[in-house]
Amino acid sequence: MIPIVINRRTLIAALAAAPALSALGATVGSAPASAADLYPSNTALYADPTLVEGVDYGRRYRRHLIDDQSPQHRTALIRTTVIAPHGGGIERGTSELCLAVAGYHPADLAPTPAAGPVHDFWMFEGLRSSDNRALHVTSTHCDDTVVRAMCSGSLNVLSLHGCTTATAGLEAGARAVLVGGLNSGLRQYLMEEFAAAGIRAVNVSGEKEFAGDDPENICNRSMLGMGAQLELTTELRAAMFTPGGNTWADAGADTLPLFWSFTTAVRAAIQRLEATQPIL
């Protein structure tokens, strides 16, 4: 697991300022209600003695070093954290997207693009060969202490999820992304960038799980109390990876142009949002 590294003075100052997959196998979408989950929280899941971290599930994260030693210059806090609460085999493709949106190639973690920028990231991943759905913890109950600390120390949070067309209320076969969350500005930028990239996007409201408008949703636990949530249909994610017999663990090396078009659109939306925010 990658250690958290951050300059304490910078963090305190920031806090004071404050909201196919045929190639990968079958997939499932986000549960529409927490009642469908076996575990009521991450804490409960971690406490289950029958589960082994590194075998059944894993956690990956990176909080970038910010070293502010100069009284003449200010080092800006990284504003955005990208998360995948149901990565690995739970909602397949979301781990790879999380890494790419954060600025790292999912195959080898090389900075991509090399010039950056990079964002902090966190993901919870199902590592089993099957039955990863049992490891799903709904976003409003995500209480992992690392991700909560990272989100509360970030101006912006973007959460990546997978869904089926049936649970999303879309026609069968739809390649679409549902855009939710309480950060209306980020949602607008995401919708505009997806439109420019030719990616079908639906601005969700009303349906609480997909709308991501619950303040308890991990995407909204930012310094500003708001974030964004993306739900990608199975068909959209499938079109991002090479068809074949590869397992989800190999997906990082099997990305197709649509994967990078999607990633570029999301990164552009984040960049537009950050440009409106003050240097902390």
Keywords, please?
15% strand, seven-stranded mixed β-sheet, 280 residues, Aminopeptidase, alpha/beta
So, the CATH homologous superfamily?
Poly-gamma-glutamate hydrolase, zinc-binding motif
Instruction: Report strand %.
Output: 15-25%
- The tally of helices reads 9
CATH architecture: 3-Layer(aba) Sandwich
Structural class: alpha/beta
Give the C-alpha Rg: 18 Å
The N- and C-terminal alpha carbons lie at a distance of 28 Å
Stretches where pLDDT is under 50 for at least 5 consecutive residues are 1-34
According to CATH, what is the class?
Alpha Beta
Annotated CATH topology:
Aminopeptidase
Describe the main β-sheet briefly.
Answer: 7 strands, mixed
State mean pLDDT (0 to 100 scale): 86
* Overall body shape: globular
* Count of extended strands: 7
Helical proportion?
A: 25-40%
Q: Give the SSE order as H and E letters.
A: HHEEHEHEHEHEHEHH
Number of domains: 1
Strand order of the largest sheet: 1-3-2-4-7-5-6
Provide a descriptive summary of the structure in words:
- There is one protein chain.
- The chain has 280 residues and is of the alpha/beta class.
- The chain has a single domain, classed as Aminopeptidase (3-Layer(aba) Sandwich), CATH 3.40.630.
- The protein contains 9 helices and 7 strands.
- Strands 1-3-2-4-7-5-6 form a 7-stranded mixed β-sheet, sandwiched between helices.
- β5, α6 and β6 form a beta-alpha-beta unit.
- α6 packs antiparallel against α9.
- The protein is globular and about 55 Å long.
- The two termini are 28 Å apart.
